[in-house]
Amino acid sequence: MLKKRIIFCLLYKDGYFVQSRNFITNIIGDANWIVKNYNFINISNYIDELIILDISLKKKTNTFLKNVEMIVKRSFIPLTLGGGIKNLTLARAFLENMSDKILVNTALFENHEIISEISNRYGSQSIIAALDYKYEINKKIILKNNARIEVNNDFKKILKFVNNLDVGEILINSIDKDGTGQGLDIKILEKLPKLNKPLILSGGAGNYKHFIDILTSKKVSAISTSNLLNFVGNGLKDLRHGLQKNKIDLPSWD
Length: 254
Known about the structure:
The protein has 254 residues and is of the alpha/beta class. Helix content is 27%, strand content 26%. It has one domain: TIM Barrel.
């Protein structure tokens, strides 16, 4: 059985790292602030993977990668990069520099052929398919383009479609829960179709108890959190220790 994983996510926008709540962002600090408050050399024993997403409207890939390098320098955490990946060129820029995986969202709907191209070159394990969803009059809808455009299709049909693409994992992120720190959307687990890819759940994690609620489910392989303020200082260390005390089967880095 696969080990459960803790994934920490950083959101980068126009030269700064931001905190998101329901996809409305506020600046937290630049790369120097992240380095000061999240020493990834020291906390690499407390998280299993790191995701860094560029949510800038106007992408500056070289600047983004320089910021990423400042943060992950001399650390050995498996790294996923994402943001605006719609062609092989950007996927190559990420995967052939410092990224182990890429996260793809909009291209799943606008150019899903690129998924096969990337998979053929780098392997399906290098791709995380990300879906952002919210509830609207008791109906689940999926959005693309950083949650600006609705995808006109049934929630379960979209998940089944993505499940059949050449991706290694699927991440589903609750826009309603995003940044609230009030707990993840546990009821979504009852609504999922059968998937044969590892599932990452995101949106709403605020403390280790929220992780326990979800990671006890056989349907979920990992939780991703981007709650910068809730997990500053010893927050990620305390999170991992809290899960281990509650018998959550995490990888051991001893």
